[in-house]
Design a protein that fits this description.
With 134 residues, the chain is α/β, with parallel strands linked by helices. It has one domain (3-122). The protein contains 4 helices and 4 strands. The protein has a 4-stranded parallel β-sheet. The protein is globular, with a radius of gyration of 14 Å.
């Protein structure tokens, strides 16, 4: 079994399982009843998205130092007990189920989902390796 980290809205892989949307807001202009059929997400899990202030900071990040500050701040948010429990649950489920989680960002390395990948790896999650660019 495996957990995939995906870009929401991308085509689903065979056997991918349910998608969890770790985003602050639902997709714009998409009716709620079409979130799943249009490959966004089956379940919305905004608790694992950065706060609005952190999202704004990440979008403005232009240097490695900017990104490093974002990662440190997002890790601090994810250290909250409710987030810790969710991450522990996802890591446990990854060992027995196929599912995915994601965000809208085009490039994983410049997205909070790269930090979620690290946090889940630290918990022993069964993760599919990141997709290679290009």
């Amino acid at each position: 079994m495996t957990l995939r980290i995906v870009r929401l809205g991308s085509s689903r892989a065979p056997g991918e399982g349910p998608r969890l949307g770790t985003v602050r807001r639902p997709p714009r202009g998409v009716p709620r009843e079409e979130f799943s059929s249009r490959d966004f997400y089956d379940v919305w899990l905004p608790q694992l998205s950065p706060s609005a202030d952190l999202v704004a900071g990440a979008q403005k990040a232009t240097t490695a130092a900017d990104w490093s500050r974002f990662v440190k701040s997002f890790r601090r948010e994810m250290a909250e007990p409710d987030c810790q429990r969710l991450l522990d649950l996802l890591a446990l489920l990854s060992r027995t189920s196929n599912f995915s989680l994601g965000c809208y960002c085009e490039e994983e390395s410049k997205c909070h989902r790269s930090v979620l990948r690290q946090l889940l790896q630290e918990r022993g999650a069964d993760l599919q390796p990141p997709a290679r660019p290009g």
